[in-house]
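Entry:
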Amino acid sequence: MIRIFGKRKCSKPEKGIQMHFGAVHNNPKADAAGKALEAYFQAGGCNASFDEDVRPYIWKKVIANSGYNGVSAVMRLKVKETFADPYGHDIVMHVWKEGCAVAQALGIGDLWPLMEKEEPNIVANLGNYYPSMAQDAVLHQRQTEISVLNGAIARYGERLGVPTPFNTVITKVISCIQNNYDKQFIDVEAWLTEDGYIDYICPQIYFGFDNSTYPYAETVEAWSDLIENDVQLYIGLSPYKIGTEDTYAGSGRWEWANSGDILARQVDTARQAEHYKGFSLFRYDSVFQPQSGVKAAVQEEIDSLKQVL
C-alpha cells in the first residue's frame, strides 16, 4: 500500500515482481506524478518503472491472457494441458499472432519476440492452474472477462482492418457459454425433489472443514437439505489432497497437510446428515499408491478412517 503522506513508503511485494506503469496522456504533471510514484515503489522494495509508453506492457499482458485464458476456458483444461496439446498450442499461437498484428497496427511495435519468450514462463508459473476465465465459465458459471481480452483484440482488429478469426470465434463461443449457463447444466433440484430420475447422488465435496468458501460440514448439510424424495446421499471425499496445500481453500489451505484424521472426521460428520448412506474416495492411486512425499500422511489418515468404520 502506498502512503503518499507521512513516511511515503509502500509494502514490499513478492520477490521477482516487476511493475511497469504509465500515463494515459503524457504531460508534465503526469510525468512528475509518475516519477514520484516510481520512487515510492522502489523505496518499498518494488522493482517499479514509470514508462513513457506503457502500451507494449499492457498489450503483452492482454495478448498472453487472451491465449491461455480463452483457450483453456473453451477446452476446459489447465494451462499446461492447453499448451501440451498440439491443437491447443496451435490455437494459442494463432490468438497471440493476431493480437500482435493488431498491436503493430496501433503503432505499438512488434510484440511477437516478447510473446515467444512468454510460453515457458506461463507454463512454469501457471501450468497447474485453471486460469480465471476457465474458473468463471467452467467451475462457477460467472460472467467472464472475454470482452476485454479476446473481444477487445477482435474489436480493434475490425476497426483497423486486421483479421482476427481466432479471437473472434473464441469471443463468440465464450459469450454464448456465459449467456446460457442455465441451459447447459443438470437440474439437480428436480432430481432431488421429483421421483423417477435417480436412485442416489454423490456430490464431490472435496473441501476441508476450514475451507473459506465451502466448509465441509455446512456443504454436506446443504446437500442433504436439498433432498425431498427418496434419493440416497453418498459423499465424495478427496484423499488425493492429503499432505498437500489446498490452494484455493483460503484459511483452510494447509488443513489437508496438517491433519491426520480429516477423512475420519468427515465420515463422522456426514453420518449426521439425514439422507446419508455412504461415501466414496477419489482417487484409487492416492489411497493405494500414494506419492512418496505424502505416503506417511496417507497411511495415518487411512488408519484413523478404519477406526470409525
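The beta strands are 18-21, 47-50, 200-201, 232-237, 276-281.
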